[in-house]
């Protein structure tokens, strides 16, 4: 049965001003420590969420959200001859799947971009400029030239900004593509094809800007012998976070000769590294809250020592040990939870306005956090996930509640006769 005595006395101890200066100082330090730790966790995780979203958007700007490709031939023994996939039929099946909003064919092959005296390994990707689903993002990324110049048979390409800088290319320059191939007798027979640079694109990601070269789909298909070009479908989905579920549906729809993968599989290493960093950063910052919780333990132990006489009197008047424990648990929880509330409020305020606060700090102190000459991303993004906020607050509350147990047990074990012997 609930009894108001522990709550009433515990709140009075929180408000009491008769504590020694040192106890009061530790109380405020504990409260501020919990608040700073919680705020730091919320801000750092929000910033890391923002960088994760920024990286995902850049990866998906020219990458496929879901890819459909021809299944690899079985290894070991003679592979059974298999007819080429019916891409036209596959496009119809994919377009009708739930969650799919666009599909376009593509073809890729490995090549060397040659412009004396430099050579650069690239991925030559063929696209259909007339298919909106294959050029939507590329059209926005072009900084020189025009996408409309990619016409079948014209021999024109669009190169990444890093490739253009490394090879000294601008719109209108010529570039030779060397495509490795093997002759009928098994000897190397590389093919050379000269292209004209129709444009330059930049998405701010090394994996794209330094490796991708775009050409018309028919030009890429005609450039290499059948079987050496990797063909497939790039699928755009309604919600990128639902891409794995859409990929699972497509696997059930498409014939067995086709493989389906999504962006979470293609870029698993990137996001695994981010998850590990977020986990380690959370554990490190949680130590701030743990240190503040230890301060609560020290403060409550000193309060218990200071209130031994009060505890003995309450025990003498019949207060049960559980009610004495409740007094000091209440005091510790109030301090800890006030700190958590302060931290959540401060953390949300900073995280939601980080894009305003950071430029102000850069102007005031005359420094730049992300130098444009070094980083593609020059502004610090932040994305608040309310699930993270709830977990952080719950962990902080649990730590502060745990910190009250030992002092409360120590107070409940105070012997009244021993405490009042010299009073």
Describe, in short, the structure shown.
By secondary structure, the chain is of the alpha+beta class. The protein has helices at residues 4-15, 21-62, 87-95, 132-141, 161-167, 206-209, 217-223, 243-253, 263-266, 268-306, 308-316, 321-352, 354-365, 386-403, 405-412, 416-419, and strands at 66-70, 100-115, 118-127, 142-145, 156-160, 174-179, 191-201, 212-216, 230-237, 258-262.
The best one-word shape is elongated
Q: How far apart, in Å, are the first and last alpha carbons?
A: 33 Å
Compute the average pLDDT.
Answer: 80
Task: Point out poorly predicted stretches.
Answer: 74-80
> What proportion of the residues form beta strands (DSSP E)?
15-25%
Tell me the helix content.
40-55%
Tell me about the largest β-sheet: 6 strands, mixed, barrel
Main sheet: which strands, in order across?
2-3-8-5-7-6
Secondary-structure element pattern, one letter each:
HHEHEEHEEHEEHEHEHEHHHHHHHH
Number of helices: 16
The counted number of beta strands is 10
- Count the domains: 2
What gyration radius follows from the Cα positions, in whole Å?
A: 33 Å
Oligomer: single chain
What structural class do the secondary elements suggest? alpha+beta
Task: Describe what you observe in this structure.
- The chain has 423 residues and is an alpha+beta fold.
- The protein has helices at 4-15, 21-62, 87-95, 132-141, 161-167, 206-209, 217-223, 243-253, 263-266, 268-306, 308-316, 321-352, 354-365, 386-403, 405-412, 416-419, and strands spanning 66-70, 100-115, 118-127, 142-145, 156-160, 174-179, 191-201, 212-216, 230-237, 258-262.
- The chain folds into two domains: 4-57 and 271-419, no CATH class; 84-256, no CATH class.
- The protein has a six-stranded mixed beta barrel with strand order 2-3-8-5-7-6, surrounded by four helices.
- Strand 2 (100-115) and strand 3 form a beta hairpin.
- Helix 2 (21-62) packs antiparallel against helix 10 and helix 2 (21-62) packs across helix 12 (321-352).
- Residues 74-80 have low confidence and may be disordered.
């Amino acid at each position: 049965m609930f009894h108001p005595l522990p709550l009433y006395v515990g709140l009075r101890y929180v408000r009491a001003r008769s504590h020694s200066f040192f106890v009061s100082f530790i109380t405020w330090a504990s409260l501020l420590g919990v608040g700073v730790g919680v705020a730091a966790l919320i801000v750092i995780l929000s910033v890391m969420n923002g960088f994760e979203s920024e990286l995902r958007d850049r990866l998906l700007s020219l990458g496929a959200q879901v890819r459909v490709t021809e299944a690899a031939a079985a290894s070991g023994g003679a592979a059974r001859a298999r007819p080429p996939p019916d891409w036209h039929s596959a496009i119809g099946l994919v377009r009708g799947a739930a969650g799919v909003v666009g599909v376009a064919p593509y073809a890729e092959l490995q090549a060397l971009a040659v412009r004396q005296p430099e050579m650069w390994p690239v991925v030559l990707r063929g696209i259909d400029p007339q298919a909106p689903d294959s050029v939507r993002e590329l059209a926005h990324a072009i900084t020189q030239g025009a996408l409309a110049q990619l016409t079948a048979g014209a021999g024109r390409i669009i190169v990444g900004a890093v490739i253009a800088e490394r090879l000294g290319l601008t719109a209108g320059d010529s570039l030779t593509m060397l495509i490795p191939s093997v002759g009928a007798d098994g000897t190397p027979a590389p093919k050379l094809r000269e292209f004209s640079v129709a444009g330059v694109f930049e998405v701010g990601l090394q994996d794209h800007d330094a490796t991708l070269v775009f050409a018309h789909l028919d030009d890429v298909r005609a450039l290499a012998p059948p079987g050496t070009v990797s063909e497939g479908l790039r699928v755009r989905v309604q919600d990128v976070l639902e891409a794995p579920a859409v990929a699972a549906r497509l696997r059930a729809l498409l014939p067995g000769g086709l493989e389906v993968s999504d962006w979470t599989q293609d870029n698993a290493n990137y996001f695994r590294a981010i998850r590990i960093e977020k986990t380690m950063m959370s554990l490190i910052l949680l130590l701030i809250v743990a240190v503040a919780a230890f301060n609560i333990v020290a403060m409550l132990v000193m309060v218990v020592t200071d209130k031994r006489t009060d505890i003995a009197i309450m025990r003498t008047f019949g207060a049960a040990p559980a009610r004495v424990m409740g007094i000091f648990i209440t005091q510790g929880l109030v301090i800890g939870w006030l700190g958590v509330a302060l931290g959540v409020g401060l953390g949300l305020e900073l995280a939601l306005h980080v894009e305003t606060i950071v430029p102000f700090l850069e102007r005031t102190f005359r420094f730049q956090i992300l130098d444009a000459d070094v980083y593609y991303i020059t502004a610090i993004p932040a994305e608040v996930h309310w699930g993270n906020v709830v977990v952080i607050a719950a962990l902080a509350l649990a730590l502060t509640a745990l910190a009250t147990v030992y002092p409360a047990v120590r107070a409940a074990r105070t012997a009244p006769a021993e405490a009042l012997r010299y009073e």
